[in-house]
Structures are given as C-alpha cells and as structure tokens.
Amino acid sequence: MAPSARAPRTSGVAPTLDVERELARAVGPDAIVVGLDEVGRGALAGPVVVGACAVRILDGAVATPLPDGVRDSKALTPRRREALVDPIRATAHASALGWARAAEIDEHGIVGALTLAALRALEGVGAYDAILLDGSADVLTGHLPLHEGREAPRVALRAGADRDCASVAAASVLAKVARDAHMRELALDAPEYAWDRNKGYGAAVHREAIVRIGAHAEHRRTWNLLGSAGGSVPAARSAPAPDVLWGDDAFGPAPSADGPGPQEESR
Q1: DSSP string computed for 56-67
Q2: pTM summary value
Q3: CB atoms < 10 A from the CB of 266, how many?
C-alpha cells in the first residue's frame, strides 16, 4: 500500500470561515464571498499581486470548504505554501490573481495600483456577492462593476483577516507563491539584485546593487530606492518586454513610499 501524502505542517491558530458566514447571512441564502490579500506592497522592485479566493455559502453552510493547513502566508515556510496551492485551487469556489506592474505603481501610486490588481483578481473570479479585505483601507468601493441580477457587492474590512479568515489566508498563499516565483524569474535576468532571495524588498545586497549598477526597469522609480543612505540613483537599466508578463490561466486573465528595511524577504 502506497504511503499517503503528508499534509504540510502548520503553526498558529487556524483561520475559520466565521466572518465569511456572517457576510453571507447579510446577503442571502446563497452567497459567494471573496477573500482578497496583497503581496509586494512594500517592495522596491517588481509587481504588487492580489490573490482572490472565493467560497460559496448555502444556508449558512460552506459549500466549498478550504483545505486543512491554510494559514496566513507569513506563518508558513515556502515549501508549505507551495504545497497548499493546488489544494486551494481545487477546493475554492474560484481563485484568481491580479497583478500591477512597477510602472503602474509609479503611475498610479501604490493605492491606485492595489485597486487595479484587486479588480483584475476579481475579474478572474467572476460573479460574487461580498468581498473581505485584510486591513483598514478600502481600495474597492466605487470601482466595482455590477453583475447582472446581483446587487452591488458588499465590501468588508478586517484587520488581521489574513490571520483569522480562511478565504483571505488562502488568497495570501496564492499571491505569495506566484509573486515569489515571478521574482525568481526576474532574478535570472538581473542576478546582481538578488531578487531570488529578497523578492524585491530592501535588503542590503539589493540597495548596494542599485548604488553600484543603477536601477532596473522593474524598480519603482518614484520610491526612495536607497532608503536612509540617500544619494542619487544611476540611470535605469532597460529590460526586454515580453509579450505576456503573467499568463497563468489558472488564475484568470493577465493584465494587459519606501519599502521595508534590510530584511531578506517580506510580504
């Protein structure tokens, strides 16, 4: 008899779908609730990514339960996060990713870019009745499209939702795994910045490379790339523009401030 696959070990208190059920009760007997979470907000380089994980709730019962082991991505090792991606995709009512490029962050600001990325993720999900956002900033109200036969979606904010709410925790895992993989790919073209290790955040090796060889096209040029060190940033390096930046159809359609301190990797 073949040994069964081992579930990824987890840490911390398990998130629940209690908040999602509360939102569903306010909507009606059959509701789709989407948890959203972002990754890459504080990075110096690369995109910001919003993950979306939708659950369907019928008469107060979860019709699409998420897999055991889901946690906020920050509470999981890379291996555990990666092991959860396929189970989340398989069990969620729908899942998607939305991306906003560094150039879009420079053009619209981080809040505007988060709105773009969130709307792109929601487009990949399809119809929904309520949205649960981690944090205290509503970047969606006033921007959401209306779906035929449905009222305007409710938007709920909750600090710590990525820790407490399973749909948001699952969304954080999808976004983190996808963005980390993308930054590793970018590092193949520009290894000097060590994006495979720091994922575009403000690690010392990253900022030292900016001083030494200049900024890259994937850097957020309107940000303070050198941190407290100050000084001017050399001219940007150009990068080849691929025809498709992010084409993972499983997550829906591809999209046609200063960062943290010297950590190697962060959300």
Answers
A1: EEETTEESSPPP
A2: 0.83
A3: 19
Instruction: Please report, as a single letter, which amino acid is at residue 99.
Output: W
Helices (H) and strands (E) in the chain — how many of each? 7, 6
Q: Report the alpha-carbon distance of residue 195 to residue 192 in Å, rounded.
A: 8
Q: Which helix (H) or strand (E) holds 53?
A: strand 48-58
Residue 246 has pLDDT above 50, yes or no: no
Query: Could you give the CA distance from residue 28 to residue 238 in angstroms, rounded to a whole number?
Result: 52
Cα-based angle 97, 53, 122 (whole degrees, multiple of 5) = 50
> Residues 6 or more apart from 195 whose CB is under 8 A from it?
45, 46, 183, 184, 186, 187, 206
Residue 70 in 3-state DSSP?
Answer: coil
- Of 148, 238, 250, which Cα lies nearest the Cα of 190? 238
Report the pLDDT value the prediction gives residue 37, as an integer from 0 to 100. 97
The lowest-confidence range among 133-142, 216-225, 233-242 is 233-242
**What is the reported pLDDT for 245?**
33
Element (H, E) at 38: strand 30-39
pLDDT tens by residue, 69-79: 999 999 999 99
DSSP labels, 22-34: HHHHHH-SEEEEE
Q: How far apart are CA 188 and CA 194, in angstroms?
A: 9
Residue ranges covered by each domain of the chain: 18-184
* CATH T-level assignment (fold) for domain 18-184: Nucleotidyltransferase; domain 5 (3.30.420)
Torsion over CA: 159, 76, 173, 59 (sign): negative
Neighbours of 217 (CB within 10 A): 17
